[in-house]
Specification:
- With 463 residues, this protein is of the alpha/beta class.
- The protein has two domains: 71 residues; 261 residues, Type I PLP-dependent aspartate aminotransferase-like (Major domain) (Aspartate Aminotransferase, domain 2).
- The chain is 43% helix and 11% strand.
- Strand 8 and strand 9 form a beta hairpin.
- The termini are far apart.
Length: 463
């Protein structure tokens, strides 16, 4: 190994320089890429040479060729979808994760990463106000975190109904009814598809996308048998929160498992001024969040939390001759997620939380909300602009009148390059959706982005 240290040193030194150049460019470069995937295909898909190349030279080539096709997602002026930036401590920790090269599956094989992820999980439960002793698993993102929660739910409700899922599979099993808000995120449907649970039963929502408890109660009265209820903490468009305590009580009265998709909204729990949105969150059974969204750690890092460790471990736990399992105690990392082999993605979570501290996490989340509300205030003052949602968290949805005008202004805004905000469609209207999720966003970024919107409006209205 010592013979190769210089190769590592040279490659990492070049990666370090390119990474700093990239981060230094955030204030001045256009947010959108300047080349398409088709443009870059020829650059990368060259015939593979016969012999090896110098590692540092490969890093240089990669950085140079990729640069035109990179979206400036780390920029404080990026407000597309719900994508956070990366805190410095989290980025440094992620580099260490790559250098350590640990398969973070077993406590005995990789005790350091298992202990770090265990500590991060304990901090998360405390910060988010979730039951101590819940199992915390680190996944690729919210889709698989929802999969973990709903797989646990499926196992639990079928067991309660007297069905042995592990031995008998789904064929012939009692029908599992899954109740979801009509304005849920698509990852819920994806997870249900993966689990063979079919199309869920949609429940009416209010004008902000919040599930209506009376409609949930009425729907559940009509269906017998095992049931799962999916609630939402942070609507994709409005940022609104389902009435969790009331809805969970209705679900539990019918023997249902309650899963909460809180990909970005679960972090409202860290703020005394926002926590009321999550009233009753601790009464639910499983939860999803994404650390690469609101917490600002690198991709990828979903978090799956299940209140009953014995259930999630019965779904994902593996017992075989060549693995030394810990049958008791905290369990192995692979007992809590679908992946048998994975990087230690919980390590950057530990670093992010350690660097911020409790008050730092609170300040960061509250600042996101303040910036979203400032966007809304400024946009309401512009002629012909309608802010369509109650801006209670980090999302702002805007219409510029007709769908045609909204699409045109959105296209002009993105062509301008100063900021990135994603177009979408909500409540039957085309919208411009602003998601505030980056720890580096400041008042200058807000001003520059608002000026870009103003320019796009003026250009659209010019004959």
């Amino acid at each position: 190994m010592t013979d190769h240290v210089d190769e590592y040193r040279a490659a990492l030194a070049r990666a370090h320089e390119h990474a700093l150049e990239w981060l230094d460019s955030m204030d001045t470069r256009p947010v959108c890429p300047t080349a398409t995937a088709d443009d870059l295909a020829a650059e990368f898909a060259v015939p593979l040479q016969d012999g090896p190349l110098d590692a540092a030279s490969v890093v240089d080539e990669l950085a140079k060729k990729a640069e035109p096709g990179l979206m400036s997602m780390p920029s404080g002026r990026f407000f597309g979808w719900v994508i956070g930036g990366t805190l410095p401590a989290a980025m440094g920790a992620d580099w260490l994760v790559s250098a350590w090269d640990q398969n973070a599956a077993m406590r005995r094989a990789t005790p350091a990463t298992a202990a770090i992820e265990g500590a991060a999980g304990t901090w998360l439960l405390d910060l988010l106000g979730l039951p101590a002793g819940s199992d915390v698993g680190f996944t690729t993102g919210a889709t698989i975190s929802n999969f973990v929660g709903l797989a646990s739910a499926r196992q639990y409700v079928l067991t309660q109904a007297g069905w042995d899922l592990d031995n008998d599979g789904l064929t012939g099993a009692p029908k599992v009814s899954v109740f979801v808000g009509a304005d849920r995120h698509a990852t819920i449907d994806l997870a249900l598809k993966y689990l063979g649970l079919g199309v869920p039963i949609p429940i009416d929502v209010d004008d902000q996308g919040r599930i209506i408890p009376a409609a949930l109660a009425e729907a559940m009265e009509k269906v017998a048998g095992p049931a799962i209820v999916c609630l939402q903490a942070g609507n994709l468009h409005s940022g609104a929160f389902d009435p969790i305590r009331e809805a969970a009580a209705i679900a539990h009265a019918h023997g249902a498992w309650v899963h909460v998709d809180g990909a970005f909204g679960l972090w409202a729990a860290v703020s005394p001024s926002l926590r009321h949105h999550l009233d009753g969150i601790e009464t639910c059974d499983s939860w999803t969040t994404d650390a690469h969204k609101t917490l600002n750690v690198p991709y990828d890092c979903g978090v799956a939390i299940v209140s009953r460790p014995e259930v999630v471990r019965s779904v994902f736990g593996v017992h075989t001759s060549y693995l030394l399992n810990d049958d008791l105690g905290p369990g192995d990392p692979f007992d809590k997620v679908p992946e048998f082999s994975r990087r230690a993605r919980g390590v950057p979570v530990w670093a992010a939380l350690r660097s911020l501290g409790r008050s730092g996490v609170t300040t960061m989340v509250e600042r996101f909300v303040e910036h979203a509300q400032e966007f809304a205030r400024a946009l309401r003052e512009l002629p012909g602009v309608d802010v369509l949602n109650d801006v209670e968290f980090t999302q702002v949805c805007v219409s510029f009148g007709s769908d045609e005008r909204t699409k045109d202004i959105t296209e002009r805004l993105l062509e301008d390059g100063i900021t990135w905000m994603s177009g979408s469609r909500w409540s039957g209207r085309d919208v411009l959706r602003i998601s505030v999720s980056n720890w580096t966003t400041d008042t200058d970024d807000l001003t520059d982005s608002l000026n870009a919107i103003t320019r796009a409006i003026a250009a659209s209205d010019t004959p």
